Amino acid sequence: MSSNNPQRRASVGVKVGPVQVGGGAPIVVQSMTNTDTADVEASVKQVLELYRTGSELVRLTVDRDESARAIPEIRERLAKLGFDVPLVGDFHFNGHTLLTKYPECAEALAKYRINPGNVGKGSKRDAQFAQMIEFACRYDKPVRIGVNWGSLDQAVLTRLMDQNRELAQPRELVEVQQDAVITSAIESAEQAVELGLPKDHIILSCKMSGVQELISVYERLATRCDYALHLGLTEAGMGSKGIVASTAALSVLLQQGIGDTIRISLTPEPGGARTQEVIVAQQILQTMGLRSFTPMVISCPGCGRTTSDYFQRLAQEIQGYLQNKMPEWRGKYKGVEDMHVAVMGCVVNGPGESKNANLGISLPGTGESPVAPVYEDGEKTVTLKGDNIAAEFQAIVERYVESHYAPH
């Protein structure tokens, strides 16, 4: 992590299986499956896909008897395959009932997610919330108290709106609504502590679907508590809109030192990979200098000097090659995720960017000599020509990794 990054706000660390959230630990990437949890085979497959891509916590829906019964089997299947993936149970409406009926599910999960807005209505709310906290205490499990703008506890909102009407200068409705989100999270956390759940077993989140609203809520939340905080723009959207919105919101907060774990809630395109949300989360953290996950590829946008798409295809091939190699390299070579590789398209910025990277290649632009000098740690080492530049450069990358990064 860069020494210029701000200090993290949450001093209290929360252990979620083998992963620590907060307390000075690196910001944790998490994701959520979209399989039917009761479909054990499909769920195990997707959990592994997410985990291998880099998700350090994986959340599953636990919404009915069949999904609650499936959780221990999913946990066991993963263990037999040699993967210690912390599984988070996502409970809404009937979590207290499912944990009561299926204690083996309660024990198999690494963390419970509780939404104060739908844990129970009216007089049932406190009792059903208390039931879930009791299970967390019994099995020594951390809890994320996750408030969502779209399912806010109406009792809290009504109370704050009543109080607002009595003010000499009432606040705007949106301010009261945001305050209700924060209040619901903090009061629920305080209630959990009163019920016996240690503070280092609590993570808070206050998710909104608007960028400015999310930033405002978390800035205020961070000044009112020292709990570990989970960040995420809920219902972020599909494709570039969801990526841009999530990046815009989370980057502002992360730069202020707010946030201990993140999830990017992208709507997957039909048939699209669920792992995209993990990759985006990693890229946000890596481009901000907060964590490193895979070697960074620097490439130019192209212009009239690069009318051929060769450098674009090479950049794509190299990026894919590095991502595919990382599962192997991560276990073999220490620090390889910090490597920078430049794939440049012409002589304007190509040699300079290539010299500043660990490895760089400066391809010929339109009308330039058909040669591609390669630089290693600022020094030109070889010039590639012909039809096998991509394969030859990949071989150079492989040799560089083997010679420059110490084995684990």
Automatic annotation (TrEMBL):
One of its GO terms (molecular function) is 4-hydroxy-3-methylbut-2-enyl-diphosphate synthase activity (flavodoxin). Pathway: Isoprenoid biosynthesis; isopentenyl diphosphate biosynthesis via DXP pathway; isopentenyl diphosphate from 1-deoxy-D-xylulose 5-phosphate: step 5/6. Its cofactor is [4Fe-4S] cluster. It is an enzyme of class 1 (oxidoreductase). InterPro entries: IspG_bac, IspG_bac-typ, IspG_C, IspG_TIM. Keywords: 4Fe-4S, Iron, Iron-sulfur, Isoprene biosynthesis, Metal-binding, Oxidoreductase. Residues 14-281 form the IspG TIM-barrel domain. It catalyses: (2E)-4-hydroxy-3-methylbut-2-enyl diphosphate + oxidized [flavodoxin] + H2O + 2 H(+) = 2-C-methyl-D-erythritol 2,4-cyclic diphosphate + reduced [flavodoxin]. Residues 297-398 form the IspG C-terminal domain. Its EC number is 1.17.7.3. [4Fe-4S] cluster binds at C300, C303, C346, E353. It comes from the Bacteria. Binds 1 [4Fe-4S] cluster. GO terms for biological process: isopentenyl diphosphate biosynthetic process, methylerythritol 4-phosphate pathway; terpenoid biosynthetic process. Converts 2C-methyl-D-erythritol 2,4-cyclodiphosphate (ME-2,4cPP) into 1-hydroxy-2-methyl-2-(E)-butenyl 4-diphosphate. Belongs to the IspG family. HAMAP family: IspG. This is 4-hydroxy-3-methylbut-2-en-1-yl diphosphate synthase (flavodoxin). It comes from Methylogaea oryzae.
